[in-house]
Task: structure prediction
Amino acid sequence: MFRHSVTQAIVLQSRQFGEIHKSVTLFTPGEGLVAAVAHGAKKMGSRLRSTTEVFCLSRVFLYEDPVRRTHKITDMEGLRLFHGIRASLARYYAASLWAELILKSFAGGDSARPLFGLLRESLSLCEQASPETARSLSMQFLWRYLVLTGNAPDLDRCAECGRSIGADEPLALAGGEGAALCLSCAGPTAVEVPQAGRRYLAHTARLALADALRVRLDAADESSLRAVLLGLVQGILELPLASPAVEAMTARVPMGRRRA
Result:
C-alpha cells in the first residue's frame, strides 16, 4: 500500500537528477534522514525549485512506495528559505559543517527530534549573523550536538582515576573517544582544553542558544576551543569532516594545544 505523509524538513543535500529533477536528502524530526526525488524541481517555473535548495525549511508532502522503499516529494510549502545563509561565506561554511555532521552521524540516531530543533534554531540565528557570531554558533552547535547525542565528556571528573577536576585545574581530552582526563592521567597525545574554554562551555550550556551567543572568548581561546571541539566530534564519528566549512575553518584555526 502506498503511503502519504506530511512533515517539516530541512534540506541537507540537493543534487541534479536527470535533466529536470533533483535528488534531495531531507532531515526530519520524526524519521531522521529521508532520501527523496523532487520531479521537475530544476524547471524554471517549478514551485519546488527554491524549496529544494540546501538549508531550506519546509513543510514537505511525501509519497512513499513501501515496495521499492523510495520517496517522492509531491509538494513543499516553504517556511524559511534562509537566503541570508547562502549570501555569506561565513554563514554558509557554518551551516555546511552542521549539515555534514548530521549526515555523517545518521541524524544522531535516536536524537533526531531534539537535533532537528537545534539545527532549525541555529539556522535562524545564523541567517543574519556576523562572521564572529557564525563561528560562535558553530562552537555552540558542536557542543550541544555532543550533549544531545550523549557523547559530551564530563568536564568535571577524570574518566581514568575518577577524581574531581577543579574549575581552575587544567584538563585534557584523550584521543578517539575524547574522555576527559586530569593532567596526571593524560598521555602525551592528549589534547589540553583551554581553561577559559572549559568555563565557557560550562556557563553557556545553561543558557538558551541566543543568549549563549552573547558570551565571547578572546580570539586565542576561541580558536583553541573550536579546534578541540572539531577534533572531539571527528574522533567520535571516526570519520573526517570534509565540508568546505571545516576546510575553511581548519585552514586558519590551529589544532588543539598538545601536551609536550
Confidence is low (pLDDT under 50) at residues 253-260. The two ends are 63 Å apart (CA to CA). Residues 219-237 form the longest helix (19 residues). The chain is about 40% helix and 25% strand.
